[in-house]
# Entry
Amino acid sequence: MHAELGLRGRLTRHRAGDKAEFPFEQRVLDNGLRVIVHPDDSAPLVATHLMYHVGSRHEPPGKRGFAHLFEHLLFQGSQHVPEGEHFRHIQAAGGTLNGTTWFDRTNYYETLPSGDLDLALWLESDRMGYFLPAITQEKLDNQRDVVKNERRQSYENRPYGLAVETMLARAFPEGHPYRHPTIGYMEDIDAATLGDTQEWFENWYGPNNAVLVISGAVEPEHAFERAAHWFGEIGRRPTPEPRPVPGIVNGVAGEAVIPDRVSVPRAYLMFHAPPFPDPGFEPADVLCSLLAEGKSSRLYRELVYDQRIAADVSAFVWPSECAGMLWVVATARPGATATELQERVADVLGELRASGPTEQEIEGARNRARRQLMRQLDSVTRRADLLAHAAVLRNDPDYINQVSARYESITGEEVSIAARSILDPGRGTAVHVVPERKD
# Structure
C-alpha cells in the first residue's frame, strides 16, 4: 500500500546535552501524502503537524490574502465535524491546536495526550477530504470580516504595524510573489468568492501537496497504519504550478517614511539574502547573531551602550523558500531620529564588511545561534514543526539532524562572505516609522 523512502534518523544524546540526533521514519501513501513519524517517549504526548505547500506567494493577482483567509475557513467545520467542534474536541481532550499561514506554506497542528492520536488524525483528514460540503457563503462572509478586523488590529491600528508591508512593497518588484504581506489587502479580501474558495481547496489542499508529521510517544508502525487509515482514501489532486519568482539584485534608494501614533522612531532595514534551502542561510543566521543577539553584539554595543541612541536593536533572517530576507530593526531612545539610527547601523555594517569578524565574535555568535536552535527543538511539538518545514521547503527532513553540526562548522570566512554579499548597501531597503506631527 505504501512506498517507503527508507529515511531513518538515529537517537544520540551527548553528555553535555548540547547535541542530539532525532529518530524519524518517512513513508508516502499511494495518494502522495508524505508521512513522517518521530518517536519520543519522554512525555506521554503526541504532536500532529499537517503542512500544505501553499502560502501567500501562490496567490494570483487580485487574491492577495486568500491563503490566510482560507486558513480561517478550514476551522469552520467539514462534512463530519460541525462548526466549532474541531476546537471543542481537542480542548476537551486536554490538547492545544492552531494554524498559521506564511509566504510558502500553511500549517495546522495539534498536541494531545498520546492516546488521542486518532482524534487529531480524524479531524485533519476530514478537513482535507471533506471540506467542500461544509463551506457556505455565510461562513465565508463571517471569516472575511474576522480577517479584515485582524488586519485593522495587527497592521493598520497597531504601532509600527505598516512597516513590514511597506518594506515588502518597496524591496520586491511588481509581480514578485513576496511583494505583499500574508494578511493581504482589504479590496482583495472583499472580492473573494465562494467559487474562489472551492478552487483554492481543489488546487492546493490535496494529500500530494502536504506533509503529515506525527511526533511523540508513538510506535512508528502504529502511527503509519493510523495515518493510512484516516488519509488513505482521500484522492490525489492536480496542483497548479506556483507563480514564477523573478531574480532580485538591488534594494531601493532612499527610505520610506511612515508617520504613526508612536512615541519614538524606529528604523527598518532589509537586505536580500540566501533563502532557507540555500547553503548560505546558516551563515546569514550566524551573521545576525553576531550583529544583534546579546549585549556584546556589534549593533547592540554600538547603538545601545556606546552611542545610546537606541533602546533596542535586533537582526534576523527569515527562512523563506525562494528569496531570503535579512532584517535589522532599531528602536530609538527619546531624542534620537530614525535617520541617526540608520546611519549608525550603516557604519557598523560597513566596518564589518571591511574588516570581517574576529574569531571570538564568530565563536560567540555560532554558540548563541546553536543554543537558540536547541531551544527550538526542546519539545515534540517544535520538532514536528522543524521536520515539516524541512520536508516541505528543503525536501530534506533529515535537516533536523544535520543543522546543529552545520552551525558548529561555520567559519569566520563564511560569515565574512555573507556580510560582504548580503550587507551591500545597494541590496538594502529602508523604512522609517516616525511620530506623527502634532500641529
User: Anything to note?
Assistant: Confidence is low (pLDDT under 50) at residues 1-19. The chain has two domains: 2-231, 255-435. The domain at 255-435 is CATH 3.30.830.10 (Cytochrome Bc1 Complex; Chain A, domain 1).
